[in-house]
Specification:
The protein is mainly alpha-helical. It folds into two domains: about 20-140 and about 235-270, no CATH class; about 140-230, no CATH class. About 75% of the residues lie in helices and about 0% in strands. It has ten helices and no strands. It has helices spanning about 5-15, 25-50, 60-90, 100-125, 125-135, 155-165, 170-175, 180-190, 195-210, 215-270. The protein is rod-shaped, with a radius of gyration of 29 Å.
């Protein structure tokens, strides 16, 4: 019987010795990536507060802020994912007797796993700081959202605009009125801000009786306030959609950067990296 060559026996033993994944290196890369993300995110919070101003005409515009936020997300993903993936590739164990293509695949997988673990960890640990930076971009979603039936909720602001009066006595009389609660419920449930002609006329009558406006002026106010509410809701929807696209792009770019950096780190670890 012929004995197998020593090289074949050695390769088989190495393949069966354990998993091809170096989990300590993957975890180390993921932790480094998540920590760096937190640091850069904290810096971005201060940077964002410095460019946004409550004064009209000051600070950056809403469009510039949204674009800047998206680009900042991509920069965070590229920087943190690249470092995390590089560490995952550089710190993994050396595989002897493995074809170069297999080594390249494993390094790519190590970088991807480090990115995936950092992303999962970040969802739990970094959700608070991330929402502090990104939440303002979509905070207007609830302004006109149906279902906020509380008198102190977002819909109440539009009801206040409907009941605003130049007569202080009438203004005070309208507060705590049952009609205010009725309008809040009407705009919060069912058809929401899309009132039919009958409901719109009914609301205008209530507004006219509480503010002293004529029926025609009250109807104009109702139309103006509801249109403004719809515009705010549409703008918030668009901002949320744009943010989702930017976030998706940053995640995809982060996965790519982590995988590529891991292959470079692994090649340096094996001494096969070429400049």
């Amino acid at each position: 019987m012929l004995d197998p060559s020593p090289s074949v026996v050695r390769t088989d033993v190495l393949e069966l010795a354990g998993s091809a994944a170096s989990w300590p290196a993957i975890v180390a890369g993921a932790v480094a990536s998540a920590a760096l993300t937190f640091v850069v995110l904290s810096f971005g919070a201060g940077l964002g507060l410095s460019v946004v101003s409550p004064w009209g005409g000051a600070g950056v515009s809403a469009t510039t802020f949204k674009i800047g936020t998206g680009l900042f997300l991509i920069v965070i993903a590229m920087l943190s994912s690249s470092i995390g993936g590089y560490l995952a590739g550089r710190l993994r164990t050396k595989w002897d007797g493995i074809h170069s293509d297999e080594v390249y695949f494993r390094d790519t997988a190590h970088g991807f796993l480090a990115w995936a673990l950092a992303t999962v960890v970040g969802l739990g640990l970094l959700a608070g700081p991330a929402s502090g930076i990104l939440g303002n971009a979509v905070s207007g979603v609830s302004r006109a959202a149906p279902g906020a039936a509380s008198q102190s909720g977002p819909i109440a602001g539009y009801v206040d605009a409907l009941f605003r009066s130049d007569n202080p006595q009438q203004q005070e009389q309208g507060r705590g009125d049952d009609a205010r609660d009725e309008l809040t419920r009407m705009l919060s449930a069912g058809k929401g801000l899309d009132l039919d002609s009958a409901d719109s006329t009914y609301v205008a009558k209530i507004v006219a009786s509480r503010t002293g406006l004529t029926q025609a002026d009250a109807q104009t106010r109702v139309t103006t306030v509801l249109n403004q509410a719809k515009t705010d809701l549409d703008n918030a929807r668009k901002a949320a959609a744009q943010l989702a696209f930017w976030l998706t792009a940053s995640l995809v770019i982060g996965a790519f950067c982590a995988s590529l950096a891991a292959t470079e780190g692994g090649a340096i670890r094996d001494g096969t990296w070429r400049k």
